[in-house]
Amino acid sequence: MRHPGFIALLLGGTFALSACGQMGQSEVTRAVNSATRAEADSIREIMLTVADPREAVTYFQRQAQAEPDDIERQRDLAGALIRAGRNTEGKQAWQKIVASEKSNSEDLVFLADAMIRNSDWAAAKIVLDTIPPTHETFARYRLEAMVADSNQQWSRADSFYETAVGLTTTPAGVMNNWGYSKLTRGDEEAAERLFIEAITYDEKLFTAKNNLVLARAARRVYALPIVPMTQEERAQLMHTGGLAAIKQGDVDIGRSLLQDAIDTHPRHFEAAVRALQALNG
User: Fold this and answer.
1) Whole-model pTM?
2) Residues 123-180: pLDDT tens digits?
3) Phi then psi dihedrals of residue 51, to 5 deg
4) CA distance 261 to 281
5) Domains of the chain, residue spans
6) Which pLDDT tens digit goes with each residue over 190-201?
């Protein structure tokens, strides 16, 4: 004997199970897609930061060719070209991006950066001048300061450097640039303060350490500054100080520093040896 009510109940349960199955598959699909996007983002981040620059360019070229209308792929390629030192191609890539209707103010900042890397300072200034004043970023003001420096607009440069420092939690690099600007103007004491401050933010920034030695040497202070340094860095800084001393006519001090650099370096210090031989010869 058939039981219509029981059959209807079974059919209803079947539909319910089917709906649950469909919902589960949808969730699985979303999870897979999410994982795929996360993996792609991870690969992209690696390629933009720590991967071999040439491999990164090749990777993003394939991406850009596969999705020519995706401006994000074009941005990735332009950034990879700059990172690989292919600055002319990088500038052209950013110019293409800026010409797109999908571009934004940050693209103009990257274009200005690429122009500076190509020593096209006048064009970089023109590009920076087109950026709305409401676009206040560390990268923008760092470039503004560099351009002002190149034009010897010192007050303007100082203002931009100060603004840039206030817009980042990692100001070591821009402080080093600011210090070098002060050094070229002949303000060695201000330069020294900025180099020391840069090193406090990044103890591994050797450029700031080297510039600090130059700033002190300009005041004929040849003793190494008290900052963190490895044995090899100590030798390199002695070499820098020695050459600076010789250039300023303090030959005996320079000779002593070069010898100390040779004795301190953990390996053979060819540059210091050649400098000392040339001096003695």
Assistant:
1) 0.81
2) 999 999 999 999 999 999 999 999 999 999 999 999 999 999 999 999 999 999 999 9
3) -70, 160
4) 18
5) 41-103, 230-281
6) 999 999 999 999
- Residue 237 in this model has a pLDDT that exceeds 90: yes
Task: Decide: 125 and 147 in contact? Cβ < 8 Å.
Answer: yes
SS (H, E, C) the chain: CCCHHHHHHHHHHHHHHHHHHHHHHHHHHHHHHHHHHHHHHHHHHHHHHCCCHHHHHHHHHHHHHHCCCCHHHHHHHHHHHHHCCCHHHHHHHHHHHHCCCCCCHHHHHHHHHHHHHCCCHHHHHHHHHCCCCCCCCHHHHHHHHHHHHHCCCHHHHHHHHHHHHCCCCCCHHHHHHHHHHHHHHCCHHHHHHHHHHHHHHCCCCHHHHHHHHHHHHHCCCCCCCCCCCCHHHHHHHHHHHHHHHHHCCCHHHHHHHHHHHHHHCCCCCHHHHHHHHHHHC
Q: What is the pLDDT of residue 34?
A: 59
User: What distance in Å separates the CA atoms of residue 122 and residue 15, rounded to the nearest whole number?
Assistant: 71
Q: How far is CA 132 from the centre of its chain?
A: 23
Residues 89-133 have pLDDT tens digits of 999 999 999 999 999 999 999 999 999 999 999 999 999 999 999
